[in-house]
Specification:
The chain is mainly α and 213 residues long. Helices cover 79% and strands 0% of the residues. It has one domain. The protein contains 7 helices and no strands. Helix 5 runs antiparallel to helix 6. The longest helix is centred in the middle third of the chain and has 28 residues. It starts with 12 loop residues before the first helix and ends with a helix.
Length: 213
């Protein structure tokens, strides 16, 4: 029996280059998670979670929608946990096959997120108990969002990702705007500008992935 046509070497240089490009694109798709899984769950969490905060704890102590006091925070935490799980699973499936410097960078970056969050929340927790309810909520949310923006920019420096840097800058800027606007307004700014911004960033990142593939 003769060799199968698929087993034969390419007949010319152009065919060989196309084969190399196809294999490279397939490898990229296998080792790179869908950007929508890395961005969109967080965008949805911010859009809904902070949106509920605005509806329940509006500027000036107003209540636009009579929700239970515990509901906005519970929904936000639940959505953030779901987003974290989705991102972790997508990342593990793609990056679990990667070793070397890239794997080390990923682990160290994950540690920065974990330890940075614990450090910020520990400090904020000590201070917020001495503040009025509305200012305590503003402190918690502004600190969390500010840390997110800073770590996005740090991640962009690690992987030289311009889109991630732009998103980090955007998050940081709107966080400052919301904090200056005050309690209630901060939740609205982060919900709309932050949540939608993350969704748009995910869509752009996905389009770039398809272009590279």
């Amino acid at each position: 029996m003769g060799p199968d046509d698929d087993d034969l070497p390419p007949s010319d240089a152009a065919t060989a280059l196309r084969l190399i490009d196809d294999q490279r694109a397939a490898t990229v798709r296998r080792l790179q998670p869908d950007a929508r899984l890395l961005y969109w769950p967080w965008g949805v969490a911010w859009l809904i979670g902070f949106g509920l905060f605005f509806l329940r704890f509006s500027p000036g102590g107003r209540v636009l929608v009579a929700l239970p006091d515990w509901l906005p925070l519970t929904v936000l935490f639940a959505l953030l946990i779901v987003a974290g799980v989705i991102q972790a699973v997508a990342g593990a499936r793609a990056y679990g096959q990667v070793s070397g410097d890239s794997a080390v960078r990923g682990r160290w970056y994950g540690c920065a997120w974990a330890l940075g969050s614990v450090s910020v929340y520990a400090a904020v927790g000590r201070v917020s108990e001495h503040l009025p309810h509305d200012l305590a909520g503003l402190l918690w949310s502004a600190a969390a969002v500010g840390l997110t923006g800073a770590l996005h920019m740090a991640g962009s420096a690690i992987w030289l990702d311009r889109d991630l840097f732009r998103l980090g800058v955007w998050i940081s800027v709107i966080n400052v705007v919301g904090a200056i606007a005050g309690p209630g307004w901060h939740a609205l700014v982060i919900s709309v500008a932050g949540g939608v911004g993350i969704l748009v960033a995910g869509a752009i990142a996905r389009l770039r992935q398809r272009g590279r593939s």
